[in-house]
TrEMBL record:
<dbReference type="GO" id="GO:0016791">
    <property type="term" value="F:phosphatase activity"/>
</dbReference>
<protein>
    <submittedName>
        <fullName>Haloacid dehalogenase</fullName>
    </submittedName>
</protein>
<dbReference type="InterPro" id="IPR023214">
    <property type="entry name" value="HAD_sf"/>
</dbReference>
<dbReference type="Pfam" id="PF08282">
    <property type="entry name" value="Hydrolase_3"/>
</dbReference>
<dbReference type="InterPro" id="IPR000150">
    <property type="entry name" value="Cof"/>
</dbReference>
<dbReference type="GO" id="GO:0005829">
    <property type="term" value="C:cytosol"/>
</dbReference>
<dbReference type="InterPro" id="IPR036412">
    <property type="entry name" value="HAD-like_sf"/>
</dbReference>
<dbReference type="GO" id="GO:0000287">
    <property type="term" value="F:magnesium ion binding"/>
</dbReference>
<dbReference type="InterPro" id="IPR006379">
    <property type="entry name" value="HAD-SF_hydro_IIB"/>
</dbReference>
Amino acid sequence: MTDLLDKASKIKIIFFDIDDTLRVKTTSFMPESIKRVFSALKAKDILTGIATGRNLYGVVPEIRALNPDFLVTINGAYVEDGKHQPIYQQSFSDELVEGIVDWMKAEKSDYAYVAADDLRVSAWNDLIDEAIQPIYGTLKVEPDYYQSEKVYQMLTFSDHDDKIKLPESLVKEVRLVRWHEHSSDIVPVEGSKAIGCQKVLDQLGLKPEEAMNFGDGLNDRELFDWAGLSVAMEVSHPEILEKADYITDKVENDGILKALQELKIID
């Protein structure tokens, strides 16, 4: 515990995942203790950031009301500060999108386009509804959306998502990160939440050992390798639990507050 407290004493910014970290994905429940946490961190002059697979459209009002200092969205592909000024953007080329669409069609998979503040899907059905409704609600169908808007990420949707493999033509450009039984994020090979968070640190002149993060899913994997101190929620994927410096209680039991108090970052 002494080593953990030493790491905690160096923290100047904390990044938080949203789903099943700040709030419960399936019920939208967010404990009142989260507001207390953000207020206490501000009083201690510790900066806060959201690090999420969601885009800006998916950063729900109760999260925005916490007034985080930074938003690292779309798994690090789009980053902005608290004044809504972009810090970093990494979009797909039209050629890459077209290659992904051709591959999705060959795999008999539907797909979604993720823009900075909007989303579109190639179709709408019960399978897509089950995966995406709890996060974004019902989305508009627009198969050629990329022709008019920048795309930062795409999603697969199928009942055989675990069997879908990238073709050789795409493996050097993108990778798959599963987040749901029927869906995976399609992200740049070099893209991750850690890269987006590093862009924030570059602007602030901070080092990774001065950053802390809370998360639970496989899209937090790179963050858990990068940050000076990483905390996993009790419900986290086994790989995240293995990588964590500290494991805390679940959202409903005020896990974030408990961890920050145990690590003596806030009272």
